[in-house]
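Contributing: when you submit paired examples, paste them exactly as shown. First protein:
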Amino acid sequence: MTTGNGTEPPKRRKGSRAPVGSTTLARIAQAADVSEATVSRVINRKYGVAPATRQAVEEALKQVGYERPLDNRLVVMLTPNLKNPIFALQAERVENELNPFGLTSIICPVYPGTPRERDYVESLVDAGVAAIVFLSSSNTLRDEDHRVVQFVESRGIPYVSINGGFVEYDAPVVSTDDWRAAELAVGHLRDLGHRKIGLLAGPTGNLPADRRVEGFLRALERRGVDDPESCVVRQHFNVEGGQQAAAALLAQGTTGIVASSDEMAFGAYRAAERAGLSVPKDVSVVGYDDSPVLDFIGPPLTTVRQPIERIAENVARIVTSLIANRTVSTEEILIEPELRLRGSTAPAPTRG
């Protein structure tokens, strides 16, 4: 799959979750050479089954064509926080898509990769979890100890990730095309005449942040910009981080700023004001996400919109298929973002 601009994003390993139909416990037990009680524990994702035995039963389920019913109704959604409107909106959209299937979502705000995330998962699994959705949670961390996903895998819980997948695990992922998002933002500013364009980037090791940096650097390189790395400042995905990063770029004479989140873009507004500059007269700002509050700030923020409705639709389709043990591709699905033009971008200022 291309990113929409002719470039090929890094590929994740391909695979599938195989389909199964309906049969008896006795046939499954015979195929796996285990007791019917063991088969029942695997089907209901209970403790007390060795990993090798669980794997043998799962293989038997595939061979004999058993399709799990949607008996367990709870879907756990792990998300960084709900203070950021985009995460709350994404969780709501996924919940709305799952609801018609009789599935109930529980939203767990956690800091990715922390004991709290593991505690949520381990405690809720015993309540009969049907599936888990990693919504920009530990699935976005490149170098963390992924004990959460290891536990989920060991228990045979279906899961899907949003905006980045666990690199060492073959599981479905639905993401916004961050490479394309960067191209849209840079292209818009270049069309307006901006030649000194900088990126407010998220922390190193955060998968979406790294992808946006890759896309930004490619966009500048294709346009003949020398040393594009000097145009990138890494900071946290919040207003304060955006303000600090933008201040550094403005000190270099940057006239066009691409932010890796809307919150960082708000920080760029603050930095411009404190530097005695006006948005968009002196500096243009492009955000990322399309948060619901954008029409209430001044000037309204031009941003790259994450296609959260299409992401939610794909996640719901995958979750329901996984629960039923039907085939699901594990090649990452990249959804095309959209540039939303508002009042924070304008032609580059002329220097007299």
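Second protein:
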Amino acid sequence: MSLPTKKKSGTAKGKWAKLYWAVPAALVALLLVVLLAKWITGLAGVKDFLAAYPGHSELPEGTPAGFPAWLAWQHFLNGFFLLLIIRSGWQVRTQTRPAAYWTRNNKGMIRTRNAPTKISLALWFHLVLDALWILNGIVFAVLIFATGQWVRIVPTSWDVFPNALSAALQYASLNWPTENGWVNYNALQLLTYFLTVFVAAPLAFITGLRMSSAWPKNAKALNKAFPIEAARAVHFPVMIYFVAFIVVHVFLVLATGALRNLNHMYGGSDDVSWVGFGIFAASVAVMVAAWFLARPLFLSPIASLMGKVSSR
């Protein structure tokens, strides 16, 4: 019995050793990036480039300023669903023995000729969250195009790319670009939001759909054009992208004027007050509570409304 214990202990020590060296290595790498960026931005030609491209593109005339109330709700719901999607997705990926299983009720609104497939409760939760996230995304897309807010996260001129490079150099040199998110994002933010909303989110949806039981298994031509292996190869990196985006996004919100930034999104004004922070803190409390309540004990009664929950 001692041999497996030693092996497990050795594996754990190896993981901690990697983490022990990874942290200082990352700090050294960041220091080198900052020093390199400071040297580059000190060059005469680069100074001229930064003066010509300050880091943001001019928005078309008539672009709305500020953030409407519906966008605050959309932002919260998007973060809420995405957080739980990442949690449940990681469970699906790493779970070897699910605590419970779920089988769809084939007598409800959705009926199929073949018997429903039994899936883990974690996968059921993941799919339900996906559906709610996609629904929220559709509402968001309709509203931003209906209200003109789309202009703020969709490139409308080619100078967004040199301005994005300028903003990246300013961030890397710790001489961060001037922030005025109430009126206009800098070009790097704009491209990142565009990539997140119009590229990463659709990729997450279509690859997740390809791996789900809802995908038509007998469509040979479609399955050949889009094999499940390709979906699996893309789906997990997209999740990693969303995790990285959330970490960087929250860090920059807090580091570039937390009260003003939070008031933009949650307080609905350009004031520097604690209103937005209070609403943000309440939303974080809701997310933390949902994180801990997302367990079989609490999920099973909800899942049983849509099908049968079993232990095996």
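If you have annotations for the second protein, write them as plain sentences, like these:
The CA atoms of residues 1 and 289 lie 40 Å apart.
The chain has a mean pLDDT of 90.
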